[in-house]
Amino acid sequence: MATNDLVQKLIQKGKLGSTIFINTTEYLSLVVAQPCSTCNNCKIDKQKYKIKTSGLSVKVTTTCKQCHTVTIFTNESTEMNFLRVIAEAGLLGGVNCEEWRNMLAFCGITKQSGKRQYFKYQDIMLKDIMQAAHQSADEALIAALNFIKKQLEKKEGYILEGSFDCV
Q: This protein's superkingdom (predicted)?
């Protein structure tokens, strides 16, 4: 089987469309061109390929038919989760799920995850954002009160106007 045929078969099997931030065909061509890490076998007919997709993550597992070594290739590092980053950026930037989907489609990312995953990652981050916002508001209030104290010590009249939205 030719490399291009194998790549197209993997794209169809994984129902990829375009899910990754580089050309899908080029990415998979690079993966299938990798030799076995144990016996250096580089013949694609001597390897077995399995593809799995989840959200924006693509994982290709290769098994060498000669030495039975299993190698896993993925487009995300262990510390990186593209879907989580997109959900967090949407939350911080005020971009809703549908707007993100449209922007990603405009960039050529055609296979995307569902809203449930998007909102799950936003919920995880929301607690941290709320905590940081409360801390920032506390620090701003303390700084304002210290400023007023200094003005009173200088015997200068000063009015500090402010409003707070309480949750």
A: Eukaryota
